[in-house]
Specification:
23% helix, five-stranded parallel beta sheet, binds flavin-adenine dinucleotide, 311 residues, 17 strands, alpha/beta, FAD/NAD(P)-binding domain, seven-stranded mixed beta sheet
Amino acid sequence: MENLIILGTGCAGLTAGIYAARANLNPLIIEGSQPGGQLTTTSEVENFPGFPEGVDGYELMDRMRKQAERFGTRFKSDWIESVDFEGPVKKLSSGNTTYEAKSIIIATGASPKFLNVPGEQEMFGSKGVSTCATCDGAFYRDMEVVVIGGGDSACEEALFLTRFCSKVTLIHRREELRASPIMAERTLKHEKIEPIWNTIVEAMLPDEEGNVRAVKIRNIKDNTESEISCKGVFIAIGHTPNTNFAEGVLDLNPFGYIVPQGKSMVRTKYDGVFVAGDCSDPNYRQAVTAAGLGCQASLEAERWLFAQETI
Ligand SMILES: Cc1cc2nc3c(=O)[nH]c(=O)nc-3n(C[C@H](O)[C@H](O)[C@H](O)COP(=O)(O)OP(=O)(O)OC[C@H]3O[C@@H](n4cnc5c(N)ncnc54)[C@H](O)[C@@H]3O)c2cc1C
């Protein structure tokens, strides 16, 4: 039986691995279908401390992985489908294999939702399509951008982008925003934000170099089609936390995020089972916050194992 199994190799899982390995817990990380997590899908990370010139997302995650390996973290490529946390032996099952451990850190992240329209995936990451204004907004200084969505996050993204961009067009498929009244009012009052109602994006259109030049839209009331020129497209229609395996086992909020217990940000209702990163954090969803939670979860796991006198 393992001391500690960590699920996920994003910023949270790998940071947990570094701390646990340095504490001699000999952790095993199960890395899932996206080794390195979400950050491997972006080329430029400018807000992770320690990299004043910025760093490629893939390179950053590769470095974190090497750092975890250096202290003895072991990796296994597998996908966990179900869990059983009753009793002292925690069980994780991938269908073919059952893993057993004294303690677990769940760091399975979240996946941004996409529209699934032409051009979206081709230009996602570094060619103008983004799911994170905090991460990428500063790349669009004095440019015109489009935000797609109508909830609180879409309003937050749009308002944040007004700090850099010359114009923000907010495209929403309904006639009014779903966001809270205060957020909606602030958004609609902003001089740089122009809402476009009852409209869906049908395609994202590239320029000759393959970067975003416009979005093709359709008004769903009268079916008219047109284009809006823009340099950036921010999709703000939500995230799906990767927590299917925890349904009916852990407490999930209505959107599927694991809800930490008590004052701790990393404990769950099961002793010895901890959570870290975007799978339990609907608010911040940043590399550095995920890494911070991975650190906390690892320290908590270490203390918990020590208190059981099993290490
Ligand atoms: C395009 C893009 C650009 C971004 N840019 C920035 C930026 O510039 N700055 C910034 O701070 N943040 C940025 N972010 C956000 C940042 O990537 C996330 O906040 C961070 O990666 C969250 O880390 P995590 O470890 O919680 O989860 P993730 O990175 O989502 O990793 C989850 C891990 O869990 C694994 N996994 C999932 N399900 C299972 C399962 N059932 N079994 C086993 N393993 C599983 C996956 O394979 C993956 O390894 C960006 C995100 C995207 C998508």
